[in-house]
Amino acid sequence: MSIWTRISDALLALRKGEGLSVVFDRLRVGGAPERSVAFTIAVIALSAKMAKADGQVTRNEVSAMREVFIIAPQDEAGAARVFNLARQDVAGYEEYARKIRAMFRDGQDCLCDLMEGLFHIAMADGSYHPAEDAFLRRVAEILELPEAEFRAIRSRFVPDATPDPYAILGVSPDTPLDEVRRAWKRMVRETHPDALAARGVPQEAVKMAERRMIDINRAWEEIAGEAA
């Protein structure tokens, strides 16, 4: 059963007048499958709110979501339905973010995954609007994401500066090379599909892992090359 089928099932349970925030409440007590559904809905719902923030409400949301998720043609309608439901929902994005923070209280890595997904979508149209930056900073604040983590993720996606390889690996320029290597290996392990699945990231979001692996390997190669 694909993640989109499970999401459709979750949406069918909504009564008239209920929004996606109700879905989060119902999924909150579930296990890994429910967390995967919640993660996917969270990325789409927040991206819908972000689209309103930068005024780009007419861009192709399915194309943007393909920056994060693998969406089969037969699943496009379901993915677009989640996007449109979130865009029309009276609940504000801050309410979504707070519910997500509560659901993933024990999963800082998963919250970083969520932010990466939002950055993927923010940059899908090739630009980064100031309103998107303000939106993402506020979401990161609600998720209690450390500022250093936010900057590291931002540096990988937004082409307004050369990505700092040390920031990407979460180390400082004066960190011994052996410690940098350990940080790199830890991030490689955390980016493995099995590790992502264990914390609730669906298999359909494999593109996120591919992008992150490229970035962390490039960061390590740059640092190791400078030390050689």
UniProtKB/TrEMBL annotation:
PROSITE patterns reported for this sequence: DNAJ_2
J domain location: 164-228
InterPro entries (alphabetical): DjlA_N, DnaJ_domain, J_dom_sf, TerB-like
Domain of life assignment: Bacteria
CDD domains: DnaJ, terB_like_DjlA
Pfam families xrefs: DnaJ, TerB
Protein name per the record: Molecular chaperone DjiA
